[in-house]
Amino acid sequence: MKAKIITSFDDAVADIPDGASIATGCWGLTSLSQNLINAIRKKGVTGLTLIVHNIVPLPMLSEEECTNLTVLLPQLKKIITPVVGLQKLGAGAFVKEYVEKGLEVEFTCHGTLASRLYAGAARLGGIYTEVGVGTILEKGKEKRILDGREYILEKPLRPDYALVRAHKADRLGNLTYWGVFREDHPVMAMAANVTIAEVDEIVEVGEIDAEHVVTPGIFVDRIVKIPQGGLGSTEQLKDVIRRQSENEFVRYLLFR
Predict the structure, then answer these.
(1) Considering only CA atoms, which of 178, 174, 183, 184 is closest in space to residue 219?
(2) Which stretches of 122-195 are DSSP H helices?
(3) Domain with 19 in it: what CATH number?
(4) Number of structural domains found in the chain
(5) Is 138 part of a structural domain of the chain?
(6) Is 50 exceeded by the pLDDT of residue 256?
(7) Which residues form the domain of 92?
(8) 97 domain residue, yes or no
(9) What pairs with residue 224 in β-bridges?
(10) Angle of CA points 235, 12, 210, to nearest 5°
(11) Which of 101, 110, 234, 243 has the lowest tally of Cβ within 10 angstroms?
(12) Cβ burial, residue 210 (10 Å; 0-12/13-18/19+)
């Protein structure tokens, strides 16, 4: 059986090519795969498609405190997301210069994005949904009347890679999550061709109760352990919380 434990984040993303599609979590700082994101930035691959629930700048945090998804903007060809920026941070103005250079933004909504990922995982041909009927979300999409109601066909998402921020893994790749870490990572792992997990702890097989496994190892290809106290580790995140405790917005992003 091929070993899944990788010793460096750079090695874990070494085979990601130009033009790859990548799904990852970004629901508050704690669900970011910060080290894998940083490794992709250093690798310099371009023409990427990013599938994510939010892409939001965090100007109040330094790079030492957080590697944010926005660092990948120069390498992106397309973003599929419900949220580009937040009104409190100037909405989506931060991507304007990239859109002007050709970056494509495909807007969706949170529930539809999750459903499209599940459709990709389950190898469904798509889903019909009422969400978006009569809005810009229906543009260019097939519509049908079912039982007297109008629906939009949403195509499945099957990313080439999923970057997953889990809490604990065993050597077979079985994963557990901690709070918001879970996000849509389980369905992303199921839908992707290759899943890379960034974790706090790696344990021996049998140390994770089978009832506690959220993502079975069959869906996980590579595991990389975050160094204790390193970027994105639980210890480092707690330190960010402590130092930013007076910033209401940072507390919101960390705890939500």
Answers:
(1) 174
(2) 185-191
(3) 3.40.1080.10
(4) 1
(5) no
(6) no
(7) 9-128+157-255
(8) yes
(9) 198
(10) 65
(11) 101
(12) exposed
Structure tokens at 75: 């390498």
Q: What is the pLDDT of residue 68?
A: 80
Alpha carbons 63 and 69: distance in angstroms, whole number? 11
How many helices (H) does the chain have, and how many strands (E)? Answer: 7, 15
* Pairing relationship of beta strands 21-24 and 54-55 according to DSSP bridges: unpaired
Would 213 be classed as within a structural domain? yes
Cα 26 from chain centroid (whole Å): 5
Instruction: Give residue-wise pLDDT tens across range 29-71.
Output: 668 899 999 999 999 999 999 999 988 776 667 776 777 888 8
Stretch (H or E) spanning 138: none
Cβ–Cβ under 8 Å, residues 173 and 217: yes
- The answer to whether the CB of 126 falls within 8 A of the CB of 156 is yes
Answer for the pair 35, 232: CB distance below 8 angstroms, yes or no: yes
Token pair listed for 248: 């209401």
Reduced to 3 states (helix: H, G, I; strand: E, B; else coil), residue 161 is: strand
> Which amino acid would we find at residue 21?
S
DSSP-derived secondary structure letter, 226: P
Question: Hunting for tokens 């130092």 — which residue is that?
Answer: 243
Per-position DSSP letters for 112-131, written without gaps between them: HHHHHHHHHHTT-S-EEEST
Cα–Cα distance for residue pair 158/108, rounded to 1 Å = 16
pLDDT digits (tens, 9 = 90+) for 178-231: 887 888 999 999 999 999 999 999 999 999 999 999 999 999 999 999 998 888
- Between the two ends of the chain, the Cα-to-Cα distance in Å is 38
